[in-house]
TrEMBL record:
KW Zinc (keyword) present: no
Keywords tagged on the record: Pyruvate, Thiamine pyrophosphate
The organism's taxonomic lineage, starting at the top: Bacteria, Bacillati, Bacillota, Bacilli, Lactobacillales
Residue ranges that the Swiss-Prot or TrEMBL entry lists as coiled coil: none
Record-listed E.C. numbers: 1.2.3.3
Domain Thiamine pyrophosphate enzyme N-terminal TPP-binding: 11-122
MF term (GO), any: pyruvate oxidase activity
Top-level lineage group: Bacteria
UniProt organism field: Amylolactobacillus amylotrophicus DSM 20534
Keyword check for RNA-binding: no
Location of the Thiamine pyrophosphate enzyme central domain: 195-323
Identification of the protein by name: Pyruvate oxidase
């Protein structure tokens, strides 16, 4: 006789087969049959109780971004479901696998306008890569198995709506998940195409490589090929960490969340080798006339951001590995040397700013402290706003470490939930959540979650009492400041009140004290650093070059941004005759 199993438990076993070991959320009446099943399997899958479903959803996304494994969040019918939306959009826009299991009233009550009942499928229709309501207890494990496959395959959020009555029924224990059969096949490039790549790069005078997250597995190859062909390396902001910041050929990213050397190189280049990226601002920062070689596993990306001269549908790592085999070492070019000098000048400026002791504090000394205590495999989750700029510029990373932000959806309040996900997946790694006071305030209550599960996260808050990123946009569009000043709070004291160890830092001595504790913390800590409300150096609007700006303009710019030591790139191009 066929063994019986509760439908909910059969579904939870599917999650186990796919390697899920924790799910985030808040229970509710319409989800109780699945909570019952999770309870039965609690030795295999841990239920992480958060204090807001949005935090649960963002923790699941952050977890997926850091680990590469699907993140799972749950919500009940009605508000539990709607609160998940931020995380689902984040997963969709940043292309990560995520599963949302959503409660629904029992089948017998559906479509009666019952308590908390809403038609969830249309609501999730815009965001989900897979979006189904379970119709029978027998199909529950099957639908969840399909959902996970779609989430991996289409790199986005899958939603399964489960009427509560579907989870409590005894069904035949015959369902086998397809987890063991699932494989990822990265397409390989053709040698003919790669020979064209090499010829085009050799023919260019000022080529560079621009990498995105698609090059995540290719850190060594990117660096080796770049060195072989004298290619300065630029990247998107979320691709930070793929190439170590110690590699002086790595100029980092262009845009606003950017560095000076990358912003200056991209309009000057005559060939962009664009690997595994969908950079949204290319039209503003890339030389529109540059030749463009694009490698991506998704052909819909070709020519999307810049006209493409050569498009290769292939895996970044495989392509670069083969290019290294087919290529040959080239002499170091004048263009390469000019970029290296420009980057050295930038790094010297960053280092000098890190020595600042002025009060209110600048952000550079704070990142100096983070870098000082960060372990070799630390995880950095970085929020949205000016802090995204700071994290990109000032974290000194290596490829064993992890960097994550809400790249495309730009969800304020992302960093702290993502840190929870990162710490749960990697209990032995050190985790920093770095936010502004605007983003942190949106999710601050979930410090309680860090305390409840004893997650020793170092939460750093850069408090300027302002939505500084938007304030700068109001300046750029010649608006008056409106709606961008925010009330401050003592976030260190809030952290303490929520059960963490809180620090409120006003000066360098207090900063050192807090980070001395953070270095070996075994408990969650909240370090609220009161900083000056100053705009980060606008590298996208530099006024440093005497060929383009008057002496008065340059002086005024340097006075605001303390940038007199920064040398315009044009000087290095002239020095090296590049
Ligand atoms: P994705 O958009 O995820 O693209 C990755 C690409 O790689 C896709 O096309 C995918 O198909 C491809 N791919 C995946 N796997 C492979 C593989 N194995 N081989 C080959 N290809 C593969 N970013 C900046 O750079 N500059 C800015 O100024 C900037 N400003 C921002 C401001 C804020 C406030 C925030 C929050 C973010 C900002 N960002 C900025 C981030 C930006 O919005 C995008 O998220 C980012 O540029 C996209 O990065 P990406 O192209 O690496 O990732």
């Amino acid at each position: 006789m066929t063994e019986k199993i509760k439908s909910g438990i059969s579904m939870v076993k599917v999650l186990e087969d796919w390697g899920v070991d924790h799910v985030y959320g808040i229970p509710g009446g319409s989800f109780n049959s699945i909570m019952d099943a999770l309870h039965s399997e609690q030795d295999k899958i841990k239920f992480i109780q958060v204090r807001h479903e949005e935090v649960g959803a963002l923790a699941a996304v952050g977890d997926a971004k850091i680990s590469g494994q699907i993140g799972v969040a749950i919500g009940t019918a009605g508000p539990g479901a709607t609160h998940l939306l931020q995380g689902l959009y984040d997963a969709k826009m940043d292309h990560v696998p995520m599963l949302a299991l959503v409660g629904q009233v029992g089948a017998q009550a559906m479509n009666t306008d019952g308590f908390q009942e809403m038609d969830e499928v249309p609501m999730f229709g815009d965001v989900a890569v897979y979006n189904r309501t379970v119709m029978t207890p027998e199909s529950l494990p099957h639908v969840v198995d399909q959902a996970i496959k779609h989430a991996y395959e289409q790199k986005g959020p899958a939603v399964v709506v489960i009427p509560v009555s579907m989870g409590w029924v005894d069904i035949d224990d015959t369902f086998k998940s397809t987890a063991a059969n699932y494989t990822v096949n990265y397409p390989a490039p053709k040698d003919d195409d790669l020979h064209k790549v090499l010829d085009m790069i050799k023919a260019a005078k000022r080529p560079l490589i621009y990498i995105g997250q698609g090059a995540k597995r290719a850190s060594t190859e990117v660096q080796e090929f770049a060195q072989m062909y004298s290619l300065p390396i630029t990247s998107t902001a979320p691709a930070k960490g793929i190439v170590p910041d110690s590699n002086i050929a790595y100029l980092a990213s262009a845009g606003r969340v950017a560095t000076k050397p990358a912003v200056e190189a991209l309009p000057q280049t005559d060939l962009i080798f664009f690997v595994g990226s969908d950079f949204p601002f290319a039209q503003y920062f890339f030389n529109p006339a540059a030749k463009f070689i694009q490698i991506d596993i998704d052909s819909s990306k070709f020519g999307k951001r810049h006209h493409t001269d050569l498009a290769i549908m292939a895996d970044a790592k495989k392509s670069l590995q083969r290019l290294i085999e087919l290529g040959e070492q080239q002499p170091e070019s004048a263009w390469y040397k000019a970029n290296i000098e420009n980057n050295k000048n930038w790094k010297a400026w960053v280092k000098k700013m890190g020595e600042s002791t002025i009060t209110p504090l600048r952000v550079e000394p704070i990142f100096k402290e983070i870098n000082r205590i960060a372990k070799d495999d630390a995880i950095f989750t970085v929020d949205v706003g000016n802090v995204t700029i700071d994290g990109l510029r000032f974290l000194d990373m290596n490829p064993k470490q992890s960097f994550t932000t809400s790249g495309w959806f730009a969800t304020m309040g992302y960093a702290m939930p993502a840190a929870i996900g990162g710490q749960l997946s990697y209990p032995d790694r050190q985790v920093f959540s770095i936010s502004g006071d605007g983003g942190f305030a949106m999710v601050a209550q979930d410090i309680i979650t860090q305390v409840k599960y004893n997650l020793p996260i170092t939460n750093v808050i850069l408090s300027n009492e302002s939505f500084g990123f938007i304030k700068a946009e109001q300046d750029d569009t010649k608006q008056s400041h409106y709606g961008v000043d925010i009330a401050g709070a003592d976030w260190g004291a809030v952290g303490t009140a929520l059960g963490a160890k809180g620090f409120t830092v006003h000066n360098v001595d207090e900063l050192h004290e807090a980070f001395k504790f953070a270095k070996d913390t075994k408990i969650p800590i909240v370090i609220d650093v009161k900083i000056a409300d100053e705009r980060p150096l606008p590298v996208e609007q530099l006024q440093l070059d005497p060929d383009n700006f008057s002496a008065e303009e340059i002086k005024a710019f340097n006075e605001i941004y303390d940038s007199a030591d920064l040398v315009p790139f044009s000087k290095y191009l002239k020095d090296f005759n590049a």
